Amino acid sequence: MTDFEPVHGMLDVSDEQSIYWEQWGNPDGLPALFIHGGPGGTLGKSGYRHRFDVDRTRVIGFEQRGCGRSKPHASVADTSLSSNTLERLIDDIERLRESMRIDTWILNGVSWGSTLALAYAQAHPERVRGIVLFAVTTTSQDQIRWITEGVGKIFPEAWERLASYAENNVTGYKRGSRRLIEAYRQLMNSEDIKIRNEASKEWALWEDTHVSIGTDGFVRDARWDNEAFRLAFVRLTTHYWSIVATDESEILKRMNRIQHIPATLIHGRRDISSPAATAWKLHRLWPNSTLIIDEGDGHGGASMVEHWTAANARLSTES
């Protein structure tokens, strides 16, 4: 493997926001953009770059508004989220492409990142030469209701704890009176850091619980130890899940815009929090897509990662 020097920087976008970006691999190679999950999940330790042949690929990652090394940070109480919208995130990606003088690129999206990848591709189909989606979501109302309330039928003890915390700390909230996601959004915008901190811990526990099937069982994500990460992740997740979701996914309605783009959709059969029905619906509306359902994995796993790496290898060969 050629030893290419990684580079990174900050890009000023709209609304006095700056997003962090980094580039790995061959600067003259096939451009590929990685879009992380969450919302607020960040690039982590940059393991995503190992999903590409960096001798042949110019791999770019960025951290979305409000999280990671991007500024201002959503963990800070007085950081407004008014400009954190799906439309602004799409604009940020397009500005990043223009700043790097890229004509077209391959998109990789993981979990929430798959929603953002689809939304960007539908807004700018002429800029996308291929798509790989991992743990597929489209962030519809049905999906958000399921992941925040419906999954409680499978994990009743954990959901009882999540809902009880909201009932005890949000004035006027009673389960069934309004959506739980809205209650936690209110908690994460409290002026009281103690309330925000405790609410974020409850949400983090729920996150680790509902993704536990199809993995090695319940495992606490070490990233929650970082208070800034945890606060930003939960605040951004509850924010976006409250404002983005629609009764019927807008993404499914716009699939005609990207039917010609080659794609691989990778999903775990045991993904309880994001059932495979979403990936299946998307695939049926996308003639140029390949659907891979991994029977043993859940919301990610080693076998799914192998499929992810292979899908990028195929796209880089065909492009």
UniProtKB/TrEMBL annotation:
UniProt similarity note: Belongs to the peptidase S33 family.
Q: Which residues form the AB hydrolase-1 domain?
A: 33-299
Q: Check the record and name the Gene3D superfamilies matching this protein.
A: alpha/beta hydrolase
The record's section on SUPFAM superfamilies has: alpha/beta-Hydrolases
Cellular compartment(s): Cytoplasm
Q: EC annotation?
A: 3.4.11.5
> Protein name, please?
Proline iminopeptidase
Primary localization = cytoplasm
* Source organism (scientific name): Glutamicibacter bergerei
The protein's UniProt keywords, in alphabetical order, are: Aminopeptidase, Cytoplasm, Hydrolase, Protease
Kindly give the PANTHER family that the UniProt entry links to this protein: PROLINE IMINOPEPTIDASE
Q: Which reaction does it catalyse?
A: Release of N-terminal proline from a peptide
Q: Report a single Gene Ontology molecular function.
A: hydrolase activity
